[in-house]
Amino acid sequence: MRRVVRRLWKNYKGWVLALAVLVVLALVPLPYYLFMPGSADPVEPVVTVQGGHKDERGKLLLTTVYSLPVSNVYLLAYGLVTGSEIEPKNQATFGLNDADYEVLMKQMMEGSQNSAVVAALRYLGKPVQVVQKGVEVRGILPNSAAQGILHQGDVITAVDGQAVANQDQLVRDIKSRSPGQTVRLAVKRGNAALELTVPLIQLSGSTGQDAPQTGLGVQVVTVQKVESPVRVDFQTGNIGGPSAGLMFALEIVNQLMPGDLTKGHIIAGTGTIDVDGRVGQIGGVEHKVVAAERAGAEVFFVPADALPQDHNQRDAEAAARRIGAKMRIIPVHTLAEAVMFLQSLPVKPSSSNR
User: Fold this and answer.
1) φ, ψ of residue 334 in degrees (nearest 5)
2) Is residue 352 part of a domain?
3) pLDDT digits (tens, 9 = 90+) for 105-143
4) Cβ(204)–Cβ(212) under 8 Å?
5) What average pLDDT does the structure give for the chain?
6) Residue ranges of the Lon proteolytic domain (predicted)?
């Protein structure tokens, strides 16, 4: 029996070792994420507005990016062959572990829903109140000087004595400063009120294309409460992040306004939205352009490039040229601009809908 085993090992040991290497390569995860075009999903089934109507002849589509952790070398090879975007895991997840990153994405989605409700109702002149209470720290980057000073769950309410109500205010205030400067933060930690001094750092671009900015090196979400007489329900499933805000707001407006903003057209888009209806930059716009074109969209709303570091509009237009997209790329600064564009569209005959 031993001779048989030795003979088999001698004849096939090369194959056995090769198989063992292949198995090990399949089991060892790598610190990367793949990003590629996701889906373009109708918003109407996702959003239900109390007293609203659902009679769109066309479609409003929210677009997504498909992200995938690189679980082995074969998946990395697949990403390289297919031209998928590959990012280091720490950069893709803001330095958070998988569980905390998932929580952050859900909180960002909830924030985008609240902001979309407020922006849409304010656009329509309906009563709505929003109370913003500061920004909550959800993650701290490994290279942040705030490590050991700020804690996850801290709520920042002021910078150098100036009140900070939301995430946008905090970012605008911090990025105007220089790395190495320090800021005094008023922070609520549980029932305690603290004043903490934190050095600022230079942040690398989140996609590798963004210009470096000054920041705290933390990931935050706005703490806010919305009070509205109009109930809006969202069924977003596993979709996370803040970038569906504009399309949520358009759907709410469409359900509450007389008529149909789509007029039979297929309208896709992306962009964050704040309570005042301003549209903000997002990540992965080039992948969303591909998803929208595959879904037959005729129009793609993209956040307009308003500041030197903005590049959503530029990237979307470049992606559309690269794939030979037939749809129009429409940059918008605000919800009002998007609504105005839709109102300018001609009604599309039913027989020509694609």
Assistant:
1) -140, 165
2) no
3) 888 898 899 999 999 999 999 988 888 888 999 888 878
4) yes
5) 85
6) 238-345
> Residue 59 catalytic?
no
Q: Could you give the angle at which helices 245-256 and 335-344 cross, rounded to 10 degrees?
A: 50
Q: Which of 243, 263, 326, 350 is catalytic?
A: 243
Q: With contact defined as beta carbons under 8 Å apart, do 87 and 101 qualify?
A: no
193 and 156 inside one domain: yes
- Does 354 map to a domain? no
Torsion of the alpha carbons at 38, 329, 55 and 49, rounded to the nearest 10: 70
Question: Which residue of the set 288, 350, 351, 352 is catalytic?
Answer: 288
Based on the fold, state whether residues 104 and 247 are members of the same structural domain.
yes
In a domain, 20, yes or no: no
Residue in 183, 96, 79 with CA at minimum distance from that of residue 141: 96
Residue 288: active-site member: yes
Backbone angles phi, psi at 200, to 5 degrees: -90, 155
Structure tokens at 168: 């946008």
96 and 134 share one domain? no
Give the span between the Cα atoms of 12 and 18, in whole angstroms: 10
* Domain span including residue 167: 129-227
Pairing of strands 328-332, 299-303: parallel
Closest CA to 222 of 159, 332, 130: 130
Structure tokens at 15: 């194959």
Q: Which of 194, 211, 227 is the last residue of a domain?
A: 227
Q: How many domains does the chain have?
A: 2
- Phi, psi values for residue 159, rounded to 5°: -125, 120
Q: Quick: pLDDT tens for 318-330.
A: 999 999 999 999 9
**How big is the CA angle at 139 (ends 269 and 80), to the nearest 5 degrees?**
55
List own/partner pairs for 339-342 with CB under 8 A and 24 or more apart: 339/123, 339/250, 339/253, 339/261, 341/299, 341/301, 342/250, 342/261, 342/262, 342/263, 342/267
